[in-house]
Amino acid sequence: MIAVARSLRHRNYRLFFSGQSISLVGMWMTRLATSWLVYRLTGSPFLLGILGFDMPGRKSFLIQMVEDRADLGNAIALNSTMVNMARLVGPSIAGLTIAAVGEGSAS
Asked: What is the value of pTM for the model shown?
C-alpha cells in the first residue's frame, strides 16, 4: 500500500475515515448555513461568534483505532487532510445550496 495511506490498512480507521469524511462535509455545510442564518436574522457578530466545534473529541479516537503505533502519525496526517478538504468542500456546497434554495436546506 502507498506509504501515504498506510494507516488505512487498519479496518477501524478505514471505517472511521470513510464515515468521517462524509460527516465532516455535512458538518461544514451545516456550520456555514447556521452561521449565515444567525447573522442574517440578528446582524450580531457576537451571536455569530458564539457558534463553536467538537474536533478534540474526534481526534482522541485515533489512538484507539490504529493498532500499530508506527501508523499513528500517518493516521493523524490523513485526518488533518480530511478535515481540511471538508472545510473546503462543505462550505462550497453549502454556499451553492443557500444561493439556490436557502439556509434551511443546507443545514
From this structure: 0.57
